[in-house]
Amino acid sequence: xxxxxxxxxxxxxxxxxxxxxxxxxxxxxxxxxxxxxxxxxxxxxxxxxxxxxxxxxxxxxxxxxxxxxxxxxxxxxxxxxxxxxxxxxxxxxxxxxxxxxxxxxxxxxxxxxxxxxxxxxxxxxxxxxxxxxxxxxxxxxxxxxxxxxxxxxxxxxxxxxxxxxxxxxxxxxxxxxxxxxxxxxxxxxxxxxxxxxxxxxxxxxxxxxxxxxxxxxxxxxxxxxxxxxxxxxxxxxxxxxxxxxxxxxxxxxxxxxxxxxxxxxxxxxxxxxxxxxxxxxxxxxxxxxxxxxxxxxxxxxxxxxxxxxxxxxxxxxx
Length: 318
Fold this sequence. Notes:
By secondary structure, the chain is mainly α. The protein has 2 domains: 1-144, no CATH class; 146-302. Helix content is 69%, strand content 3%. It is built from 9 helices and 4 strands, in the order αααααβααααβββ. α1 (3-28) runs antiparallel to α9, α2 packs antiparallel against α3 (84-109) and α4 (114-137) packs across α9 (260-290). The chain is globular. It starts with a helix and ends in a 5-residue tail after the last strand. Residues 295-318 have low confidence and may be disordered.
């Protein structure tokens, strides 16, 4: 495993999270139509970034930078990564970031339709999922010879992890729809708000079960307990931010412009939700790495293949 490649992958993953934060700032400031052309802004590559154009064009510049970083990552993967499935996953990441950019342009051209805007936000989370996965797969920890243990208990930790990741993703989608359903000077739709609250309850139950299972069953396996503890901490923070975001949002429709507390807390809520998703993905992938189970879905074999340089590399099988 190349430490340099792994570190660069983590850097691109961090840039992806920063891009999600930038997108949340655009939505919170209601800056999506600060300019009505794309890919230029007011017909310029570098316009005067004043007012809401600072958020909208800044978001585009960050997105472009992330796109170039993913291109560099793919070149690096194809030059030094021996596992074909990891290289293909890099191409999936590239396709995702290109599609994400096109969807961003479409939201402007179509004047922010909620379906396209919510899809744009959802794909951002899926792109983060791919980048987090690449960070895990390129990690030296992933390639180390590691004794596998039986997946104890029922339901299995691997299945719990999949369910938790799915529930978090669905909740993020609901949150994206909710955020794009009303600008700061409008009240949030009650039905969507209640759906989001219900989704939060599901995430707490499913992810909570996953975290407890990891901590109780594998207390001596830090490879699993570390992401479980991080996920637990982030989940508590996320619930607190969600409540704070709602309370600051209540007074927003009476304001002449978005209030800074509402913007800051809401954006933090979006970012923390992405981090919860990332921690859940890491825990799930690691559970497939070290736990034995039946052959349904995909699994990590216990044996290692050796490349021509003598370096161990694990391959996922289906």
